């Protein structure tokens, strides 16, 4: 392109490029680039001029060229498809009439902060330093599938629209930030991001941290869709350190199935809403710590099947009414509350009774040294299991529960023995049973006679020497049967406890 073909605004940009000098078309630093459609020729630059500069622009010896423009209206499409740009691209507070096309391009740094764009197409883009979309307003989608970017900044950006443009229908679940299979060398910074449409990070790899603090993610625009899809769809995402999402607000689910987050998934103070669907899905994920501290009660299902989490910090009031926890493994459960507050959550499992869920909860209490709570959980497990058994087995379970608490309440057996011993001793002391052989019978002792009846193994020589009659005979039968039941259930409970140890 000949220099004589340039407008005055374009000439300023062309002449500043070899020295990496800034060209600022703004009338004031706080003007709104959303009004860029009305900007006149004095601040309008054709996209083809920018393309010529970036791919084959002038240079000066001893100078580092670069494009640095504020407040321009860019007409036409900036097409850098498959191109290699060795210079920094900084187009801040600009207004783009058409979506820039960056498919397969290689750039050093691309900065579009505070700009207004209809969209951004950058599949397989490579940015060696940074891609910065800070505080951008982008009505359509940002598509970066398979991109290789050192660091991505979309903090404060606003993607999509809460209302579809007149005459256009926005498809349900249409992503506004598409990062599938992308590779980020350091961080993805999205603090305060507002997205009207799905954010996708499926199979993406992030070397550092993903930060979604204070973000607002809406799966559907107002008036569109039924509120039933994922606002954040990040299956199999791999993060080098943390995924932060404190104070996150969603309408639609958060899907982190198969994610690898070695340190912390921080959803403290978050508000997750997906009524009728899965509000939070971490199935088969491996996570260091999952925090929902001070979060609002989750609206929708939580699915953590087969997830492996080292520390699970979720207050009991945050859990929703529907859960899928089959195979969930965790080492530490916080905050530490009595098991009576945790056990009702296991009743919310959609698939019904899951023995492993109780074993895992008991193991978590043992990890922090609360053996009493662990025994309470084990007892609750057996009671829940009893409801699934045939009638006769349920009757036997009730006997074990009432007598010795399935072996977890051994003092109950001692209490029963003391009570029965007292009843028998008083009854037989008031009316001594006659001896079978008066000349051979030992001296009668009501206490040891009762113990002889109660204890099926130990003998004191009293039971075989005396023969109760009348109602005392029936009392002796009751003591014998009760003694056997207590001995059998105690042995079963002790055996069960030893097996667990």
Structure described in brief:
By secondary structure, the chain is α/β, with parallel strands linked by helices.
Description:
With 501 residues, the protein is α/β, with parallel strands linked by helices. The strands form three sheets. It has a 17-stranded parallel β-sheet that branches. It has a 15-stranded parallel β-sheet that branches. The protein starts with 7 loop residues before the first helix and ends with a helix. The model is unreliable at 165-171 and 222-228 (pLDDT under 50).
SSE arrangement:
Layout: H1 8-16, E1 23-24, E2 44-46, H2 47-56, E3 66-70, E4 73-75, E5 88-92, E6 95-96, E7 106-111, E8 116-117, E9 120-121, E10 126-132, E11 137-138, E12 142-143, E13 148-149, E14 152-153, E15 158-160, E16 175-178, E17 183-184, E18 188-189, E19 194-196, E20 198-200, E21 205-206, E22 210-211, E23 216-218, E24 230-233, E25 238-239, E26 243-244, E27 249-251, E28 253-255, E29 260-266, E30 271-281, E31 286-291, E32 299-303, E33 308-313, E34 323-324, E35 329-334, H3 339-346, H4 355-367, H5 371-386, H6 391-404, H7 410-430, H8 446-454, H9 471-500
Parallel strand pairs: 1-3, 2-4, 3-5, 4-6, 5-7, 7-10, 8-11, 9-12, 10-13, 10-14, 11-15, 12-16, 13-17, 14-18, 15-19, 16-20, 17-21, 18-22, 19-23, 20-24, 21-25, 22-26, 23-27, 24-28, 26-29, 27-30, 28-30, 29-31, 30-32, 31-33, 32-34, 33-35
Helix pairs in contact: 4-5, 6-9, 7-8, 7-9
Count of alpha/pi helices: 9
Distance from first to last alpha carbon: 83 Å
Largest sheet: 17 strands, parallel
Secondary-structure-derived class: alpha/beta
Write down the Rg.
37 Å
Uncertain segments of ≥5 residues (pLDDT<50)?
Answer: 165-171, 222-228
Record field, number of beta strands: 35
Mean pLDDT across residues: 88
How helical, in percent, are the residues?
Answer: 25-40%
Global outline: rod-shaped
Question: Strand fraction band?
Answer: 25-35%
């Amino acid at each position: 392109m000949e220099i004589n073909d340039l407008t005055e605004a374009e000439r300023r940009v062309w002449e500043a490029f070899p020295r990496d000098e800034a060209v600022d078309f703004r009338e004031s630093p706080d003007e709104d680039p959303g009004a860029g459609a009305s900007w006149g020729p004095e601040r309008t630059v054709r996209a083809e001029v920018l393309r010529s500069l970036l791919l084959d622009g002038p240079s000066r010896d001893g100078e580092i060229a670069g494009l640095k423009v504020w407040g321009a209206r860019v007409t036409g499409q900036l097409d850098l498809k498959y191109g290699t740009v060795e210079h920094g691209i900084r187009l801040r507070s600009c207004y783009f009439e058409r979506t820039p096309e960056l498919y397969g391009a290689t750039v050093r740094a691309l900065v579009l902060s505070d700009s207004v764009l209809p969209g951004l197409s950058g599949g397989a883009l490579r940015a060696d330093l940074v891609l910065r979309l800070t505080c951008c307003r982008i009505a359509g989608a940002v598509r970066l599938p398979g991109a290789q970017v050192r660091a991505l900044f979309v903090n404060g950006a606003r993607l999509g629209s809460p209302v579809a443009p007149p005459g256009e229908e926005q498809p349900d679940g249409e992503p506004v930030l598409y990062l599938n299979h992308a590779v980020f060398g350091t961080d993805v910074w999205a603090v305060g991001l507002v997205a009207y449409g799905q954010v996708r990070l499926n199979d993406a790899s992030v070397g550092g941290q993903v930060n979604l603090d204070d973000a607002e993610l809406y799966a559907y625009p107002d008036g569109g869709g039924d509120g039933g899809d994922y606002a954040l769809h990040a299956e199999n995402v791999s993060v080098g350190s943390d995924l932060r999402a404190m104070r996150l607000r969603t309408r639609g689910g958060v899907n982190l199935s198969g994610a690898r987050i070695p340190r912390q998934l921080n959803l403290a103070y978050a508000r997750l809403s997906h009524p009728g669907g899965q509000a939070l899905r971490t199935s088969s994920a491996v996570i260091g710590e999952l925090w929902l501290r001070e979060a609002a009660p989750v609206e929708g299902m939580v699915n953590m099947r087969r997830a492996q989490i080292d520390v699970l910090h979720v207050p009991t009031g945050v859990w929703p009414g529907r859960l899928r926890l089959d195979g969930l493994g965790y080492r530490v459960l916080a905050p530490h509350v009595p098991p009576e507050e945790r056990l009702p959550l296991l009743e919310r499992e959609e698939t019904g009774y899951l023995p492993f869920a109780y074993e895992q909860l008991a193991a978590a209490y043992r990890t922090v040294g609360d053996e009493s709570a662990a025994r309470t959980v084990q007892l609750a497990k057996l009671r829940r299991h009893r409801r699934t058994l045939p009638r006769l087995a349920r009757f036997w379970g009730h006997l074990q529960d009432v007598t010795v608490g399935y072996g977890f309440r051994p003092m109950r057996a001692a209490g029963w023995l003391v009570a029965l011993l007292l009843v028998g001793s008083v009854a037989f002391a008031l009316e001594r049973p006659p001896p079978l052989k008066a000349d051979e019978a030992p001296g009668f002792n009501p206490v040891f006679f009762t113990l002889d009846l109660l204890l099926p193994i130990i003998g004191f020589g009293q039971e075989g020497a005396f023969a109760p009659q009348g109602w005392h005979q029936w009392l002796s039968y009751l003591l014998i049967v009760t003694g056997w039941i207590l001995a059998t259930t105690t042995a079963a409970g002790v055996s069960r406890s030893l097996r667990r140890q």
